[in-house]
Amino acid sequence: MIIGYLVTFIVSMIPIIELRGAIPIGVLTFHLSYFEAFIISFIGNIIPVYFIVKFIRPIFDLLRKNKNT
């Protein structure tokens, strides 16, 4: 059962698949309830946003600095 949660969670982090693929995988493949699949997929989809917001400014600064050299 933990494998189903983990796979659903990881699939929801993949950029193109996201929730559209993770919820059906959780429900149809691992027999999770719709609510469980949605909650796990939603949390997995939100986690990368924190890192993107936190690190996008330093990445842009680094790219800007390398452009001028």
Helix-strand layout with pairing:
Blueprint (H helix, E strand, L loop, with lengths): L1 H10 L6 H12 L4 H34 L2
Helix pairs in contact: 1-2, 1-3, 2-3
How would you portray this structure in words?
This protein has helices at residues 2-11, 18-29, 34-67. The protein has 69 residues and is mostly helical. It is 81% helix and 0% strand.
Notable traits:
single chain, mainly alpha, 69 residues, elongated
Helix count from the secondary structure assignment: 3
Please give the alpha-carbon distance between the first and last residues: 53 Å
Residues in β-strands, percent: under 5%
Radius of gyration: 16 Å
Main pleated-sheet profile: none
The assembly state of the depicted protein chains is single chain
Shape: elongated
Number of strands: 0
Order of helices and strands: HHH
Q: What is the arithmetic mean of pLDDT?
A: 91
Low-confidence stretches: none
Q: What structural category do the secondary elements indicate?
A: mainly alpha
Helix content: over 70%
Q: What's this entry about, in short?
A:
This protein has 69 residues and is an all-alpha fold. It is built from three helices and no strands.
